[in-house]
Amino acid sequence: MQFARALSSWGRLVVLPLSLSQSLARLPDHPLRETSMNRAACPALSEVSPAAGCRHAGAGHILPVLCSLVLVLCAVPAHAADGAAKAGQKENENAAAAEPERLLLWPDGAPGAKGEAEHDRPSLTVWLPEEKLRNGCAVVVCPGGGYGHLAVGHEGRDIAAWFNSLGVTAFVLRYRIAPHYRHPAPLTDVQRALRMVRSGAEKWQIDPHRTGVIGFSAGGHLASTAATHFDDGDQQAKDPVDRESCRPDFAILCYPVITMTADYGHRGSRRNLLGDMPDGKLAESLSSEKQITAKTPPTFLFHTNEDRVVPAENSVQF
Predict the structure, then answer these.
(1) Which residues pair with 1 in a beta bridge?
(2) pLDDT tens, position by position, 14-36
């Protein structure tokens, strides 16, 4: 917990854009340097590795930082965090054995749907932690995949099981992607997901004011757009879900795609989201580094300069 307290003292925005060793080298007297930078620094990570199969170089070395950050953003009491760490493998086995509930974001059909196939039906898969571990925090998980496929394994199910071991309720989002869909479908889906989670707060025993979003790579871009494009809900809407806010209370962006205009952006993600010749103003509005305001929620980013898929400049600019 010393690690978590150290992070919490840094303010509302924490950025670790380079390799962890380089970042910590700039803080010679900071308590972070006293923490071992390996899996032992966070026992929960030794059970479910969110970096398994990850194509982004260096991501696994920074995961102890992410573990500590989650304890800060989700405000997990020390005894709950210790209990989750000790539970470890048992909790993950329970999560794997349970059958998660999958919910359609729009049971009667998504707006702009082109059919009724699987890719036309965005959904949330609900991963509930063991009841005695639940701390009320919730997170929508956005897997990456360049807006062309969804890495629902190591950036979805594994992440959800890991969050469950910390007492956090996780919702893995299957959002609409190319070649069938482009913007605004993914953004519409993640906004609906956040509203749906809040609308079910009583059912899932979560705090609607401690509901965030985490995303990886292109899913990180989607999470960043959720953190920069939101509203308070429509109180006159017939659908009670639409009355809820879609602003995340916190965001965690993991080696995210951020820009849709700069040279260091990820061309594949841009093409899949916006097409070959996107409108300049649209690309600008979806370049999240240009959309930050005082209302942008507390955000944590991690990236490494070893990443050759999505350059760390994305996180630096955000």
Answers:
(1) none
(2) 444 444 334 333 333 333 333 32
